[in-house]
Specification:
binds iron/sulfur cluster, 7 strands, alpha/beta, Uracil-DNA Glycosylase, subunit E
């Protein structure tokens, strides 16, 4: 190995360690276990689509409408997102429209390279009309910051735009009726990487019944977009010992984006 390669490798290790220490401090993980494998491997993408979809899920190949989006500038994306939001604000396709306080459309940078997809609004989100603003949202913000990004750099949306009463699980019919809006959001934003947070987001985006435990940690394919699945921040609040796994997943997202943007 040349001296310069060695220096670069060392700098990469130090940077990685610094980020990890910050992340672990943030996440309250006391023990730092240093991996000897610091080499950044190119991620492989797993095709996860299954034919036996959960009942009621929409076919993922079906676009929201027949319009083809060839949008690369911010102005157009903002306009299209605004139009879609206005459509959704008056959506009464499913009974959740009767119990919502606010519709929770999505938030963030329309030019985002990284887009997070969660399950559905909770109480705080329903009250404020913004996704991931409660305790789980604060944790998501820390996760984003731990990989060297700001919340305003990414885009955040949910599978469902209205809160299921009592935070119950989304029903298949609700997912089927609401999913076209998310598909259109993704088409407009065109992120380089998607990150599915939790079981419902991962299973819906990837058309699979596989558990989040088996899906996490790998890049899957959503219509050509590399999609990382990981645990939902709300799950991490209940199971803090799983935070290390999310850190591993997010490092892969960080490294993948870094490599993509450097090439
Ligand atoms: S959850 Fe989705 S489909 Fe149901 S009313 Fe709200 S926006 Fe419409």
């Amino acid at each position: 190995m040349q001296v310069n390669d060695l220096k670069n490798e060392l700098a990469s290790i130090v940077k990685d360690l610094k980020t990890r220490v910050e992340f672990e401090k943030t996440f309250g993980i006391d023990v730092i276990s240093l991996s000897t494998q610091n080499k950044r491997e190119k991620p492989s993408i797993t095709i996860t689509h299954e034919k036996d979809l959960p009942e009621g899920l929409p076919p993922q190949t079906k676009p929201f409408n027949k319009k083809t989006f060839t949008i690369n500038n911010k102005e157009n994306k903002v306009k299209l997102l605004e139009e879609l939001k206005n459509e959704m604000l008056v959506c009464h396709k499913c009974p959740l429209s009767k119990t919502r306080t606010n519709l929770v459309f999505g938030v963030g940078n329309p030019m985002a390279n990284l887009m997070f997809v969660g399950e559905a609004p909770g109480r705080d989100e329903d009250l404020q009309g913004e996704p991931f603003v409660g305790r789980a949202g604060q944790l998501l913000t820390k996760i984003i910051e731990a990989i060297g990004m700001k919340r305003s750099d990414v885009y955040i949306a949910n599978i469902l735009k209205c809160r299921p009463p009592g935070n119950r699980n989304p029903l298949p019919d609700e997912i089927a009726l609401c999913m076209p809006a998310l598909i259109k959001q993704i088409e407009i934003i065109q992120p380089k990487v998607l990150c599915a947070l939790g079981t419902f987001a991962a299973q819906t985006l990837l058309n699979t019944k596989a558990s989040i435990g088996s899906l996490r940690g790998k890049f899957h394919d959503y219509k050509g977009i590399p999609t990382m699945a990981t645990f939902h921040p709300a799950y991490l609040l209940r199971n803090p010992n799983e935070k290390g796994k999310v850190w591993e997943d997010m490092k892969k997202v960080r490294d993948f984006l870094k490599e993509l943007l450097n090439n």
